[in-house]
Specification:
heterodimer, A: 167 residues, 4 helices, 3 strands, B: 477 residues, 3-stranded antiparallel beta sheet
Chain lengths: 167, 477
């Protein structure tokens, strides 16, 4: 895990940030956390529309699961109230668990899909759940976005052989 | 240059530079240690933090201490003076139940006061620029030409939720389009999700994350107040059956005090509980109710798009629904390469944005020292102006008139938050607000002037911080 994160940070440092695209929230279903699936034009040449939409839809699904109102969430709420919320000192809420899942998913998507295309997704939770920030990096090395040097088998495998060792 | 008169050079009158203070002219290694600050230390809103960021409150906490004192003193007197008699005469269950209620009240009060109400973090500079660009584009398209000169129209976005058209407003301070039901609290200078009102009695905003605690606080406080009132009366009556009324009062003078406090509190607290029970069951916020956003009077087709249709579901969701975690990450460490949200306004925003980059800051001490003088003055002059309207509104009548118990606290507290710092846009016109227009009309000019101060203060506060640091650097040179 640490090496993969290291790779993404290397990516940030080795490539230069060209621009950032922000996917805004979609409030048409109310106040629940959903993001717009509209494909931003800046990403047109970078990533396939379908991959992008799938990522956003999966994220939306995760958030819907976190905010789902049903038997289990009521149970958690009542239990928490009954213990005067001290139970949250020991265990984390369902929402927090799902947020952790989301962050792992985003990491995975970054390594497998986005970083090889010179893109980087930022977890919305770091932006106050307002936007999904997608950083677009310019290729410095000829082959593009693969991380410079460092380590072994990483998720950002694809990127082609190219200038990986150019540093 | 040795200070003080020339004289013999043997005394080198150099004063030793203290190496304990955090002066930035140190080695980079030490700079890194200093730079590892937590995010709450540079939080742009007007909040107070305690326990290294674990506790978060509004800036004005005087009334909160009053609330604490009232509850503690009244309950304390009850336990000390009335309970011994009642436990013996009637049943020991009385102090037991009172004890449980008391702990519940205190627990929920502290939870409401100390937790993050659902503050939305401000936009990062990149986001803000992107939004501005988008808004600029749409305005250009709408106007046909680029709008130079005249004031652009208020920035709103319309969205259809569940069949109702809802306007999302752009917040100039936080540089975001506010989600539906969010509002900007001018006292705390934050946008808060599902903003209900700013409650001076708990010293915090009431929003999405702490509404249930607030509701349980006022509900349990109603029970506690009624309980204490009833049993204090019982105590006095029982005693006066034995020794006569006046002697009973002399024997337990505390009971009189308790009875008085409880009598006046009961009307407001119970009324408020009833009001919020209604709000919860119809899934509205105080904000929406007072503005009449979803009332039928606005039009036959007007309904609340957020309601789940039945009272039971609305209540369950409000009280037992999932709690979202705090978005502002108060105790996280500032990463040196992430941009911090800029303080609003006028060209000096750079300094706000580079708060975490102490190496850059070291290069610009002279520049930073300039705004420091003005910000200090503004800060000082603004403060009393801010303090008094707040005090006059909140400490007004501690016991509101019986005629409108339910709405007065909400209205009193509500006048305060209703600020959109976009001057031209009035949230609150007397004809829109159905209930106590007098109070609100009286409140709004005060609130307006306060917004002026707040706007100035908000931008100056973060500058002030930077400029203080700048001064420290200057002095160490």
């Amino acid at each position: 895990m640490a090496t993969e994160v290291h790779n993404l940070q290397e990516l940030r440092r080795s490539a230069s940030l060209a621009t950032k695209v922000f996917i805004q929230r979609d409030y048409s279903d109310g106040t629940i956390c959903q993001f717009q699936t509209k494909f931003p034009p800046e990403l047109d040449s970078r990533i396939e529309r379908q991959l992008f939409e799938e990522t956003v839809k999966t994220l939306n699904g995760f958030y819907a699961e976190a905010e789902k109102i049903g038997g289990s969430s009521y149970l958690e709420g009542c239990l928490a109230c009954a213990t005067a919320y001290f139970i949250f000192l020991c265990m984390e809420t369902h929402y927090e668990k799902v947020l952790k899942k989301i962050s792992r998913y985003i990491q995975e998507q970054n390594e497998k899909i986005f970083a090889p295309r010179g893109l980087l997704l930022t977890d919305p939770v770091e932006r106050g759940m307002r936007v999904i920030e997608i950083s677009i990096y310019e290729d410095r090395c000829s082959s593009g976005s693969s991380s410079s040097g460092s380590s072994s088998g990483s998720g950002s495998s694809s990127g082609g052989g190219g200038g990986a060792g150019s540093r | 240059m040795p200070p003080g008169g020339g004289g013999p050079m043997k005394d080198c009158e150099y004063s030793q530079i203290s190496t304990h203070s955090s002066s930035p002219m140190e080695s980079p290694h030490k700079k890194k240690k200093i730079a590892a600050r937590r995010k709450w230390e540079v939080f742009p809103g007007r909040n107070k933090f305690f326990c290294n960021g674990r506790i978060m409150m509004a800036r004005q906490t005087g009334v909160f201490y009053l609330t604490l004192v009232l509850i503690l003193v009244t309950s304390g007197l009850f336990f000390a003076f009335d309970c011994p008699y009642l436990a013996v005469k009637i049943t020991p269950a009385i102090p037991a139940v009172a004890g449980i209620l008391f702990f519940f009240v205190m627990g929920t009060l502290l939870r409401t006061s100390f937790s993050d109400p659902g503050v939305l973090p401000r936009a990062t500079p990149d986001e803000a620029a992107d939004l501005e660009r988008q808004i600029g584009n749409t305005e250009d398209i709408a106007n046909g030409t680029s709008s130079g000169g005249y004031r652009p129209p208020p920035r709103t976005k319309e969205v259809i939720i569940n069949g109702q058209t809802v306007k999302l407003k752009y917040c100039f301070t936080c540089k975001i389009f506010r989600p539906p039901r969010a509002s900007h609290c001018s006292l705390c200078d934050n946008c808060v999700e599902r903003f209900d009102h700013h409650c001076p009695w708990v010293g915090n905003c009431v929003g999405k994350r702490n509404y249930r605690f607030f509701y349980m606080f006022i509900l349990s406080l109603s029970f506690l107040t009624v309980f204490i009132f009833a049993f204090v009366l019982t105590h006095v009556i029982l005693r006066s059956q034995q020794t006569g009324f006046l002697n009973a009062l002399k024997d337990s003078p505390a009971s009189v005090l308790e009875a008085v406090v409880c009598f006046f509190s009961v009307w407001s607290i119970v009324g408020l509980s009833g009001f919020h029970t209604y709000l919860i069951s119809s899934n509205q916020t105080t904000n929406e109710d007072i503005k009449g956003s979803w009332s039928n009077k606005r039009g036959k087709e007007n309904y609340n798009p957020y309601s789940y249709g039945n009272i039971f579901t609305n209540c369950c969701v409000a009280l037992c629904g999932p709690i979202s975690p705090s978005l502002i990450d108060r105790r996280g460490y500032i990463q040196p390469d992430t941009p911090q949200p800029a303080a609003p306004s006028n060209g000096i925003t750079m300094y706000g944005a580079t708060q975490s980059q102490s190496d850059m800051a070291a290069a610009t001490p002279l520049l930073q020292s300039e705004p420091s003088l003005t910000s200090d003055e503004l800060h000082l002059s603004g403060k009393p102006g801010l303090g008094t309207p707040c005090a006059s509104l909140t400490l007004g009548p501690p016991t509101p008139p019986a005629s409108m118990p339910n709405l007065t606290e909400a209205a009193l507290a509500d006048v305060i938050p209703r600020k959109d710092e976009h001057m031209g846009h009035q949230f609150l016109t007397p004809d829109e607000a159905p209930s106590p227009p007098r109070l609100l009309a009286a409140g709004s000019p005060l609130a307006h002037s306060r917004t002026m101060h707040v706007l100035g203060l908000a931008s100056q506060d973060s500058l002030h911080e930077d400029s203080v640091r700048g001064l420290v650097k200057l002095s160490s040179v």
